[in-house]
Amino acid sequence: MPTAEELRIMQAYPLGLKVKKTQLRIREWVDYYGVENCAVSFSGGKDSTVLLHIVRELYPDIEAVFCNTGLEYPEIQKFAKSFDNVTVLTPKMSFKDVITKYGYPFISKEVAERVHNARECLKSYDLRGGVQIHSTLLSTHRNVSRRGRRKFSGLGVSLASGTTFRIGATC
User: Fold this and answer.
1) How far is the CA of 91 from the CAs of 7, 43, 46, 80, 134, in angstroms?
2) pLDDT at site 115
């Protein structure tokens, strides 16, 4: 993994050098795994379209995989399907069904970690009357300010925005 400084240097490379380094990595990958065991994850966005173009300059028959979650714009779906050798994967459950069954995904790992820690705290408290938990969370999140403390009561987590998230086993 490159350091921050190495990353800044690589980002400053001229485009031609970036393309050559990308081609080298692609060749190394295909040489190691074999073309039949490689595919390009293709979202139809600009980055994956450029990557697919570079890969197919080297390996014209390599498969591309497009995951159609049902949330993609129709234009993106049509664009992705316009390429040769693109496998379209569709989930068994719609996004709405996933949200209904499992809850909405968290915004970040930080929020997910706080909810995890809240669940651990809630295991040891009687919440029938509602309890404020500060010290336990702050001991694991030292960078949380006093104003950033969270209030836990019942089965919800009240965040700074005032939005309450249900804390459940499948959430």
Assistant:
1) 35, 15, 23, 17, 40
2) 79
More confident call, 30 vs 157: 30
Query: pLDDT (tens digit, 9 = 90+) per residue, 47-59?
Result: 999 999 999 999 9
Q: Compute the residue count for the chain.
A: 171
Residue 165: φ, ψ to 5°: -110, 135
Same domain membership, residue 62 and residue 23:
yes
Name the domain boundary from 91, 111, 144.
Answer: 91
- Number of other residues whose CB lies within 10 A of the CB of residue 55: 21
pLDDT at 169 over 70: no
Residues 42 and 70 in one domain: yes
Domain that holds residue 48: 4-91
Residue 45 one-letter amino acid: G
Do 68 and 30 share a domain, yes or no?
yes
The whole-angstrom separation of Cα 43 and Cα 161 is 32
The domain boundary, picked from 74, 91, 108, lies at 91
Contacts of residue 13, Cβ cutoff 8 Å, sequence gap at least 6: 21
Is residue 170 within 8 Å of residue 101, measured between CB atoms? Answer: yes
